[in-house]
Design brief:
The chain has 459 residues and is of the alpha+beta class. It contains six helices and 26 strands. The chain has helices at residues 2-18, 166-177, 203-216, 243-248, 287-298, 327-339, and strands at 23-24, 54-60, 68-74, 82-87, 94-97, 99-101, 104-105, 108-109, 112-118, 126-133, 136-143, 154-159, 184-187, 221-223, 264-268, 271-275, 306-310, 344-347, 353-356, 359-360, 374-375, 381-385, 406-410, 414-420, 425-432, 442-447. It has an eight-stranded mixed β-sheet with strand order 1-23-19-22-18-17-16-15, with no helix packed on it. Helix 6 (327-339) links the parallel strand 17 (306-310) and strand 18. The N and C termini lie far apart (55 Å). The protein binds 2-acetamido-2-deoxy-beta-D-glucopyranose (6 copies) and fe (ii) ion (FE2). Residues 37, 41-43, 166, 169, 173 line the site of one 2-acetamido-2-deoxy-beta-D-glucopyranose. Residues 37, 41-43, 166, 169, 173 line the site of one 2-acetamido-2-deoxy-beta-D-glucopyranose (NAG). Its cofactor is Zn(2+); Fe cation; Cu(2+); Mn(2+).
Length: 459
């Protein structure tokens, strides 16, 4: 079996060498539908002690990278609502107070969900923080990003559609063990898959929160909403979309003048990241549209050369499942992605991996028949990375033949690393769970769309 896989890889490598068309990987792996890890799994263990804070997670808390939102849940009573924090090299400890929210979902009542925003941190500094009170306090740490600037190296991890199966656990482990060392995760939507349970059993939101704590308590995950965050179930009276997600996972949307936590932007080191919601109104005249188009005009590519867009549903995907679900957003937004020279668009939703060529399909006007994507030097690369490993399993059916725009596609679980070197160069690697921690199954050098022509004297 191992030998067979080796031969497969060899064949793939040879194929890669001689053929310039897109590649459909022939790598073979187990594709059966996975089940969630049982409730008594080690990853779901409740921290010991009365009312111990659990599901600790952080995300960026401002626009520039000097803010962090620290969130956690206390199960029994409110407890302390503040976070104690200090810089690694300082004895000066500070306290910041936060908010507590709770929600009901049918007959489920959440714990006390705490959100504390720490502002005005120093750039590029390690901080310790403590949550909890009395005998049960828990201590974690994070490192703030460097001040935004054109040649600041920074490494993002990419994870999507994670869920809580053994495959999910393997994806997180591979990310943690990857020597490429991500400093923050761009999460492209579909977190817990609690909605796969009867009544959308929200205790599976809690288990997911405890599972990912080992990473997200130490490095910010930048959240994108997916369809599994909608939790719309009118049959039982749950008619507010995104209720559990928006109570549990806050985003710094106000800092980018957005009016919804579901779309927002941040600067982080040399990257400007715009997060969109595939499941909120996005047509012309809507709040998301107006915000997004205005946002693109604000990006200063001298300060943040790398313009990255995150969304859940891919605009380009050649898998059979979810085929063309992103098409209406593509029709609305693609011309702007090209006009403003977005470097890369990351999406999830399709439980597989795919990378596009730099192509666009914006010349079509209903009557001219020009509806085939063409090579476009100003267009982003589209990367689908919905392969975190949830209980729905992998999507293996692909449209055939592989479209010209599709550069590489493979249904395997894994994660990505987007490694910014300087204003002109970034390296993307896709890591499959079945390989060693350092192995890349697909990779690509990206040349910045704004700086590629050497616009060194232009802001
Ligand atoms: C909610 O209702 C379901 C179905 O009636 C039941 O199985 C479950 O135990 C209830 N949960 C709570 C927390 O009451
Ligand atoms: C801490 O633990 C001790 C021993 O269990 C207990 O007597 C005390 O009341 C606890 N203090 C708090 C603040 O919970
Ligand atoms: C999840 O992964 C961690 C780290 O590799 C491991 O210690 C743990 O036992 C795994 N748990 C399950 C349920 O697979
Ligand atoms: C948000 O709007 C305010 C007021 O117009 C402006 O001062 C601020 O710079 C804006 N923030 C961002 C991140 O665009
Ligand atoms: C863009 O950013 C650079 C570097 O931070 C700065 O010098 C320049 O003034 C900014 N341009 C504008 C138009 O704000
Ligand atoms: C940017 O990084 C690339 C890749 O590491 C390197 O080849 C190039 O020389 C760097 N450019 C500058 C101006 O340092
Ligand atoms: Fe999805």
């Amino acid at each position: 079996m191992i030998l067979a896989r080796f031969v497969h890889l060899l064949v793939v490598s040879i194929f890669l060498g001689v053929c310039e068309a897109g590649l459909t990987s022939s790598y073979v792996r187990e594709t059966g539908i996975a089940t969630d890890m049982p409730l008594d799994s080690d990853v779901f263990r409740v921290p010991v002690g009365y009312n111990a804070p659990q599901q600790v997670h952080i995300t960026q808390g401002d626009h520039e990278g000097r803010g962090v939102i620290v969130s956690w849940i206390t199960p029994d009573e409110v407890g302390s609502t503040s976070v104690l924090y200090w810089a690694e090299n300082s004895q000066h400890k500070k306290t910041v107070n936060g908010d507590v929210v709770r929600y009901k979902y049918y007959n489920y009542t959440s714990g006390y969900i705490h959100h504390c925003t720490i502002n005005d941190l120093e750039f590029d500094t390690k901080y310790y923080y403590v949550v909890g009170w009395g005998n049960v306090t828990r201590k974690f740490w994070f490192v703030t990003p460097p001040r935004p600037g054109p040649d600041v190296p920074y490494t993002f991890g990419l994870i999507g559609d994670l869920g809580q199966t053994r495959n999910s656990n393997q994806t997180v482990t591979h990310y943690e063990m990857n020597p490429a060392n991500g400093q923050s995760i761009l999460f492209v939507g579909d977190l817990s898959y609690a909605d796969s349970y009867p009544l959308h059993d929200n205790t599976r939101w809690d288990t997911w929160g405890r599972f990912v704590e080992r990473n997200v308590a130490y490095q910010p995950w930048i959240w994108t909403a997916g369809n599994h965050e909608i939790d719309y179930l009118p049959e039982i009276g749950e008619t507010i979309p995104f209720k559990p997600f928006t109570y549990r996972y806050w985003t710094p949307y106000k800092a980018s003048n957005s009016t919804s936590p579901l779309w927002y932007s941040i600067k982080r080191a040399s990257a400007y990241i715009i997060v969109l919601s595939s499941y909120s109104a996005y047509a012309i005249y809507t709040p998301q549209y107006k915000w997004f188009i205005n946002e693109l005009t604000k990006v200063n590519r001298t300060e943040t050369p790398w313009l990255i867009v995150l969304m859940h549903s891919p605009l380009y995907s050649s898998y059979v499942h979810h085929y063309m679900e992103g098409e209406t957003m593509r029709v609305m937004y693609e011309e702007f992605l090209v006009k403003y020279k977005v470097d890369v668009v990351f999406a999830g939703h399709v439980h597989a991996y795919e990378r596009s060529e730099r192509i666009s399909n914006i010349q079509y006007n209903v009557v001219n028949g020009l509806c085939t994507p063409i090579n476009d030097d100003s267009a982003p690369v589209y990367i689908t990375i919905g392969d975190g490993g949830n209980q729905e399993g992998l999507l293996t059916e692909m449209t055939e033949p592989q479209p010209e725009y599709s550069a590489y596609r493979e249904p395997s679980y894994g994660h990505g690393i987007f490694d910014i070197k300087n204003r002109t160069h970034a390296y993307f690697g896709w890591h499959r769970n079945q390989d060693g921690f350092a192995v890349e199954a697909d990779s690509l050098w990206l040349v910045n769309r704004y700086w590629k022509t050497g616009k060194s004297s232009v802001a």
